[in-house]
Specification:
Layout (H helix, E strand, L loop, with lengths): L2 E6 L7 H14 L3 E5 L2 H6 L3 E4 L26 H13 L4 E6 L1 H12 L4 E5 L15 H22 L2 E6 L6 H9 L4 E3 L7 H13 L5 E6 L5 H11 L5 E5 L11 H19 L5 E6 L2 E6 H6 L7 H10 L1
Parallel strand pairs: 1-2, 1-4, 4-5, 5-10, 6-8, 6-9, 7-8
Antiparallel strand pairs: 2-3, 10-11
This protein binds adenosine-5'-triphosphate, 6-O-phosphono-beta-D-fructofuranose and magnesium ion.
6-O-phosphono-beta-D-fructofuranose binds next to loops.
InterPro entries: ATP_PFK, ATP_PFK_prok-type, PFKA_ATP_prok, Phosphofructokinase_CS, Phosphofructokinase_dom, PKF_sf
Subunit structure: Homotetramer.
Function: Catalyzes the phosphorylation of D-fructose 6-phosphate to fructose 1,6-bisphosphate by ATP, the first committing step of glycolysis.
Length: 320
């Protein structure tokens, strides 16, 4: 394999640039030319493809976002869009592609693979919602950003005797909420994977105030309901709380990647190129117990299940 493409797709995630840099530099060391496909599958279909050299990826390791830009492009779910993508790749003499993105992006990569075009996936999403891997690229940075925000929120909540409901991202997964909630001593962590009892949350908050706490922090995963709705539900049962909601939003997705995400991005990117040069396709690089492993897209979609760390959610209840 002499020429490969690399793209980022779906929501950007801190560490994607580290992965792109590793694809380019490990590729060069293996004698492979690397081409950027910008703006995800939209750019692929529209032929936004250009050569990337070692120099082009200098100074990006420590930068958030993605230098290749990203897009959501539902048209790629249709066969017509996919075949246009394959056509563009052939036109540019590209023989394999590394797709850095989330589960949706992997569906796109799998479709290219099904059309006979070699693809390898790198799990790049803040949501940590991909089956088979302990962590996705960007999750660690996002959790650290959220924890910093929660520490700030606690300061102001404590100054006013308030309860604050903080909505965090994660789509249908509660991982960001679990990790950031445990790290900041949240009085409650509400996630999609576990039913919650509003009366228990209210009791815990009241007990906390009765024991001398001057604030209550509820970390709510966006996949459950909007923060304003949980505030409404709490007030419906007990209107005595001084309560506010905070939606952290896209601040969670930006910023410099942590060392962990830089290392993960570098390891994932390098391994992805190696796999293409070994003639592999339809696989995703993943990390299990600190080792880089691979899983088939098919298994990620059909056989493996993403397991949120529910024991950490349980643990938090003993610590509040
Ligand atoms: N079933 C599918 N078949 C082909 N392509 C798909 C499919 N689903 C998604 N894609 C492509 O992948 C892109 C990204 O998917 P999606 O918006 O779900 O984000 P993601 O990769 O899961 O990342 P994140 O969840 O972190 O935002 C879509 O805009 C579309 O171009
Ligand atoms: O940036 P957008 O397109 O609004 O998407 C937001 C979604 O993307 C993510 O940030 C990453 O998948 C989710 O946590 C969130 O639900
Ligand atoms: Mg996704």
């Amino acid at each position: 394999m002499k020429r490969i493409g690399v793209m980022t797709s779906g929501g950007d995630a801190p560490g994607m640039n580290a992965a792109v840099r590793a694809v380019v530099r490990r590729g060069e060391s293996l004698g492979v030319e690397v081409y950027a496909i910008t703006n995800g599958y939209k750019g692929l279909v529209e032929g936004e493809i250009h050569r990337l050299t070692s120099n082009d990826v200098g100074g990006i390791l420590n930068r958030g976002g993605t230098m290749l830009f990203s897009a959501r492009y539902p048209e790629f779910k249709e066969k017509e869009g996919q075949l246009k993508g394959v056509e563009q790749l052939k036109k540019h003499g590209i023989e394999g592609v590394v797709v850095i993105g989330g589960d949706g992006s992997f569906r796109g990569a799998q479709s290219l693979s099904n059309h006979g075009f070699p693809t390898i996936g790198v799990p790049g999403t803040i949501d940590n919602d991909i089956a088979g891997t302990d962590y996705t690229l960007g999750f660690d940075t996002t959790v650290n950003t959220v924890v910093e925000a929660l520490d700030r929120v606690r300061d102001t909540a404590g100054s006013h005797g308030r309860v604050l409901v903080v909505e965090v991202m994660g789509r249908d997964a509660g991982d960001i909420a679990i990790w950031s909630g445990l790290s900041s001593g949240a009085e409650a962590i509400v996630i999609p994977e576990k039913p919650f009892d509003i009366n228990q949350i209210i009791k815990d908050l009241k007990d906390g105030f009765a024991e001398g706490k001057n604030q209550g922090l509820i970390v709510l995963a966006e996949g459950v309901m909007p923060a304003a709705e949980l505030v409404r539900q709490i007030q419906e049962v007990d209107h005595t709380f001084n309560i506010r909601e905070v939606v952290l939003g896209h601040i969670q997705r930006g910023g410099q990647p942590t060392a962990r995400d830089r290392v993960l991005g570098s390891s994932f990117g390098a391994r992805a190129v190696e796999l293409l040069t070994e003639g592999k396709t339809g696989l995703c690089v993943e990390v299990v117990d600190e080792e880089i492993v691979t899983n088939k897209f098919d298994d990620i979609f059909n056989n493996l299940k993403h397991e949120p760390k529910l024991h950490l959610h349980e643990l938090n209840k003993f610590l509040i």
